[in-house]
Amino acid sequence: MIAGDNKRGYVVLAIKMTLAVYIVGHGLIFIHEMSHGCTALALGGYFPFLQIDAEGGRSIFLFPLGTPAWKEALVMLAGSLANTLVSMLALGLLASGIKGREKRFLIILTGGLSGQIYTLGYIQALIERANEEVFGS
User: Fold this and answer.
1) How many CA atoms are closer than 13 Å to the CA of 118, on its beta-carbon side?
2) CA 20 to 30 Å from 55, out of 2, 21, 62, 99?
3) pLDDT digits 0-9 by tens, 71-129
4) Cα(60)–Cα(109) distance, rounded to whole angstroms?
5) Cα 55 versus chain centre, distance
6) Does the predicted model carry a pTM greater than 0.90?
7) What DSSP designation does 50 have?
8) 8-45 burial string, b = 16+ CB within 10 Å, else e?
9) What kind and span of H or E run contains 134?
10) Closest of 8, 46, 23, 12 to residue 109, by C-alpha
């Protein structure tokens, strides 16, 4: 059986972990969506909308008619590139020998969640494309 002090410690740890995952996760989603928007702006597009909620994030960008397709392709790749760069930065920080358990854990959490957002975003895009082909919507 766990002593009373240990139970309190586990509750505090659980609260800290929940907050860390929430803050880091939404921060990474913000970086991902802003990279889409900033890339669109840099390529001459319009970026009117960004939303972050419990299901993830979404952003809307527009280009004038007749804009080359490669610009939209670059905007779509920008989110994944941002997540890849965050994961690579986290690996580099870990390799540099950061001291302290809390700092190392936060870096591992950030890099891992960033990689997960990249992977799940790719899988979601494939599922949406398959639904469009099958159901035509």
Assistant:
1) 19
2) 62
3) 999 998 898 899 889 999 988 988 888 888 888 888 888 888 888 877 777 777 777 77
4) 28
5) 12
6) no
7) E
8) eeeeeeeeeeeebeeebbeebbebbbbbbbbbbeebeb
9) helix 101-135
10) 23
For residue 7, what pLDDT is reported? 80
Task: Compute the mean pLDDT over every residue in the chain, rounded to the nearest whole number.
Answer: 85
For 104, how many CA atoms within 13 A lie in the half-sphere containing its CB? 8
Check whether 3 has a pLDDT greater than 60: no
Structure-block tokens of residue 118: 């990249």
Q: Which two tokens stand for residue 91?
A: 């690996």
Task: Find the helix packing angle between 4-42 and 69-95, rounded to 10°.
Answer: 140
The sign of the CA dihedral 119, 68, 34, 47 is: negative
Helices and strands: H and E segment counts in the chain: 3, 2
The residue type found at 124 is Q
